[in-house]
Design brief:
The complex is a heterodimer of chains A (296) and B (279). Chain A has 296 residues and is mainly alpha-helical. Chain A is 74% helix and 0% strand. Chain A is built from 12 helices and no strands. The two termini of chain A are 41 Å apart. Chain B is 77% helix and 0% strand. In chain B, helix 7 crosses helix 9, helix 8 runs antiparallel to helix 9 and helix 9 runs antiparallel to helix 12. The longest helix of chain B is centred in the C-terminal third of the chain and has 35 residues. In chain B, 46% of the residues are buried. The chains are: A mainly alpha (296), B mainly alpha (279). Chains A and B meet through helix 1, helix 3, helix 4, helix 5 and helix 6 of A and helix 1, helix 4, helix 5, helix 6 and helix 7 of B.
Chain lengths: 296, 279
Amino acid sequence: MSRKFFSGPFILILPSILAIGFVIIIPLIFSFYTSFTSYKLTRPDSLFNFVGLRNYERLIDNTKFWYAFGRTILFLAVVLNLELLFGLGIALLINKITWGQRTLRTIMMFPMMFSPILVGFQWKYIFNDNIGLLNNFLYLFGYESAIPWLIDKYLAMGSIMVAEIWANTSIFAILLLAGLLGIPRDPIEAARVDGCNSWQVFKNITLPFLMPFIFIALTIRSLDVGRAYDIVHIMTGGGPAMRTELIWTMIARIGYKDANMGFANAMSYVSIILSIAFTYYFFTKLVAARRDLGQQ
Amino acid sequence: MKQIKKIAFWLLVLFLLILICLPGIWIFVSAFRPNPEILSKPANWIPDRWTIHQFTQMFSINGYVSVPAFKYLMNSVIISSVSTVIAITIGMMGGYAFARFNFRGKNSIFLSLMLARAVPGISLSLPLFILFAKIGIINTSFGVILVYVAMNVPFTIWLTDGFFRQIPKEMSEVARTDGCTRLQAFWNVELPLAGPGIGAAAIFAFLLSWNEYALASIITRTVHSKTLPIGMMDYLDEFTINWAGMCAIAVVMIIPALILTFIVQKHLVSGLTFGGVKG
């Protein structure tokens, strides 16, 4: 009897586990091994050249890597916070509208349909210094010198952030709007009768209720942050002079251009831990927020 | 005063709408522009003459092929649909197991499945490239399908788990006391009820496969298995960037995504939030 009970769900989950095992777990084990070797694509026999922790030591000494690492953290921090802020703003705005809300909601989801590679290309086109929409627009207002958005060392990072924010704000907006629509009216009306102003209602009722939705959005987003690679790869390829190099573009460059797989895999592990840490952090926050809400 | 406030509010909404839509519209318009107009300065906002030159050239209607877009399109369609069907089938089984059974380590398995998705594509691409080359499935549609199935399964489980939970357990129990087997109860009662949700999950999976770039750029090498996103890069790799051609291929890529998302947009949000809030 207990065997039967165990085997039912087990058989149902097994295909999923097999697929993930083959495509994700086995390659990860393999790359974990190669991160301890001096494996180079151009010399296959170097796969068995065990070098211990040398790749990781080189990583710690590599200032370029730490710059890329810091830039990735900065990028994620800025982008996620702004997306959350704008998403919340848009959600509150649309929640206020009674006429044509459905249409607006659909239009708002427009950027979600763009793949990261399309987003990257589209903004590369818009930010192009010569023929781009943005410079053409500025030209219209008499600003005739072309601004090199993607070539300037300071502007490039900002331009990429704009693209990333454009693409993903709508995920936050739509999830937060779903949360807003589900808020019970009674506590808000009761608070208004008791003399709360809009800000107090927002801070004490709306926001706590939205917390789980905020963390769901953050969890979903953090699963896919690595997809920012596509955008950066298309828009600048890490340039100018590595000013927009994120940890992911650096992995691709060292792994494939320099064919230094062992070193690149060591780097991959750092990036994987980074992604998982982000996801895990938001997930625990989500569980906590859900518990808080349950008690209220 | 109230009137001014109202006007300001709608102006803000209008501004946001322009911000959201304009980049896409610009690409769309540029795809139908004659080539010299793209480079003109000051810009010609609305084309004097609309042309489908880029599309006929891309799909080699008049014989000359610069980029084999039709082959890429076919690859994309086949790879995305096959991987979606497989991912939904096995993901649905998993989601059902998580929603309906209690077993040891349930929560930790669920969380580790989700974490499997958090592995960035580019980190995975290095070992997959070597592994696939070793067993000889690099540059095949089969290899790409396999990868997309694995990438889509965790999210499908997350979504379908939420949808199956929405269906009261009693419905299946009633069916079984009436003499159905568990499978029959699933097939006749639970599956139809969860249908819309599973459809939404399928479109998510399809879009992810349709749009994926980082992994496909490594494990596809030639026109034999390259998908549309990789094909788009062919325009970049040429000596000068063919902006109009890229815009045209972008339009080809975006239209199926646009249609599919509009179909499921109602279920999209409930699926995403349900798994999280009540799960």
